[in-house]
Amino acid sequence: VNPKQAASEKAASYVQDGMTVGLGTGSTAAYAITAIAARVRSEGLKIRCIATSHASEELARKNGLIIAEWHRVSRFDVTIDGADEVDPAYRMIKGGGGALLREKIVASSTDREIIVVDQSKLKPSLGAFPLPVVVVPFGWQRTRDRLEAMFGCEITPREAVNGEPLVTDDGLQILDLHFGGPLPEVDTLEATLKTIPGVVECGLFTGLCQHVIVGHLDGTTHEFFPGDPFTF
Amino acid sequence: VNPKQAASEKAASYVQDGMTVGLGTGSTAAYAITAIAARVRSEGLKIRCIATSHASEELARKNGLIIAEWHRVSRFDVTIDGADEVDPAYRMIKGGGGALLREKIVASSTDREIIVVDQSKLKPSLGAFPLPVVVVPFGWQRTRDRLEAMFGCEITPREAVNGEPLVTDDGLQILDLHFGGPLPEVDTLEATLKTIPGVVECGLFTGLCQHVIVGHLDGTTHEFFPGDPFTF
Fold it and tell me: Is A9 helix (H, G, I), strand (E, B) or coil?
């Protein structure tokens, strides 16, 4: 069993009839979308969804899920998404999949953000994984310079397969900040980043996770809630 | 004489041979672009420019100015732009023209940001003019709701002539926050706005003006520098 699949199926069990559901992006979220759609079909649940990327929306539609219009959605009951790192304070780095901006917009309007991971994503501190920062294409080279001057770490533009800067679903670009160790000033880092004009969002998520589900290779899962230590 | 034109011509006199020049957006900036181009033609100045909107870039090219590529520009020597309000601390509200994001990106890499206004734009405090906030289209209705909950003021989406939400040169949208009086907590307002995912930038410019030129109806101008009171 894939640990992410086992945990995604557990996460999908929290979706109930009548709910508005946020759909994450990435390989883990894809398992969750498939699992939610299977429940909708087998149990006749009536739910509506908003996806955090074109890719997830396409997968959801293909599996028969109903995509809602934003002007009819005020809150999400549940959102299921993955993460690249989760620390003991339930802070996360997200954005390896490039959808962090939409993921954060949805997470910040969600009552129960369920984060599905395998055990390797639980870290004593964040920062071994590069921190993605979404930037405006106009003048992005100068935004990169200012981030470099601010943090002194290596910064690489996220590239598409053709070697050009990747353009996100929102027409923006991503710079990966390689801290290579614990993030500096993690409590104020997001605000500091956003003082630079051209910075739109960053992949540091704080206070946006209400539930963690960890999948294991044997198909079992563990569930954790903010305040719980990660113990098995 | 149009006061903005007189002041724009004075501003253009600060452009020197060899400079990298930022071009603002709006009616005032258009006068400045025309005046800079006239000097380039008559005096043979060699300068290169980056414009803060497609409209300004088009006007600049039409007038024979050379548009630089961002990867060859590290700083701007001079940028000339307009403003909707300027207060005695040289803070500004900009963005009536919808280009505030690019204007702020350029201003924040500029050594001498020259702001050209007529006398009516000098205000004891900012906020009678609506504060524009640039937002990501994805979920903008929820971003608006969160701004409303935060400030309790009327918020209107900037619209194009067809009544649809205006899409900026960066593919983003603008919400106008109608405080109708002095901005609340002006020193922390920008950081507070940017805590909301989906907020990209705001039209409050702090510490980004190095020189104000005020034009008068009789064609005269007054020049002011941060620290100077606005007296005639």
Answer: helix
C-alpha B142/C-alpha B193 separation (Å) is 14
Of B93, B148, B172, B152, give the one whose Cα is nearest residue B125: B93
Cα–Cα distance measured from residue B118 to residue A121, given in angstroms and rounded to the nearest whole number: 57
Nearest CA in chain A to B51: A138
ipTM score over 0.85, yes or no: yes
Say if B109 is an interface residue toward chain A (CB within 8 Å): yes
Are the C-beta atoms of B109 and B20 separated by less than 8 Å?
A: no
Chain segment A48-92, per-residue pLDDT in tens: 999 999 999 999 999 999 999 999 999 999 999 999 999 999 999
Is residue A199 within 8 A of residue A173, CB to CB? The reply is no
Instruction: Please give the structure tokens belonging to residue B57.
Output: 């870039």
- Give the rounded distance of the alpha carbon of B145 from its chain centre: 26
The dihedral sign for the CA sequence A27, A32, A38, A40: negative
Q: Return residues 165-184 of B near A (CB < 8 Å).
A: 169-171
